[in-house]
Design brief:
By secondary structure, the protein is of the alpha/beta class. The chain contains 4 helices and 5 strands; from the N terminus they run E-H-E-H-E-H-E-H-E.
Length: 120
């Protein structure tokens, strides 16, 4: 079933349960043949920093690092909000492979055709 799907994540270590479940859902979407984007904003942009999620493990779920790796390995895209990156002074950070720094306009364009989205 072709189509698009977006998962918006605004949490990182401030709410590891939401960050983890969001990537579980993103993996389900990409596994269902949806062109899937995870849009990281506010505190969520920390997840784009390589190594940041390495120690996040929610009981009952695969480690977040594994979920993120599976997501990108299966064709999922990670977009990190450019102004949010700048606010947190992360411009020079090394990012998780597959991460693209984007402005809000790119997310709006992706969603403008009625793309379903969930927010965590």
């Amino acid at each position: 079933m072709p189509g698009r799907f977006c998962v918006s994540i605004t949490h990182a270590k401030d709410n590891t349960d939401k960050a983890t479940v969001a990537f579980v859902v993103a993996n389900a979407a990409v596994g269902s043949d949806k062109e899937t984007v995870v849009f990281l904003s506010t505190e969520g942009v920390w997840l784009a920093v390589d190594g940041y999620a390495d120690d996040i493990r929610e009981p009952g779920f695969a480690p977040l690092k594994q979920l993120m790796g599976d997501f990108t390995a299966n064709g999922g895209k990670i977009w990190a909000c450019s102004p949010c990156i700048k606010k947190r002074k992360l411009e020079d950070a090394k990012f998780v492979p597959g991460t693209e720094i984007v402005g809000g306009a790119k997310a709006v364009e992706f969603l403008s055709g009625g793309t379903p989205s969930l927010s965590y």
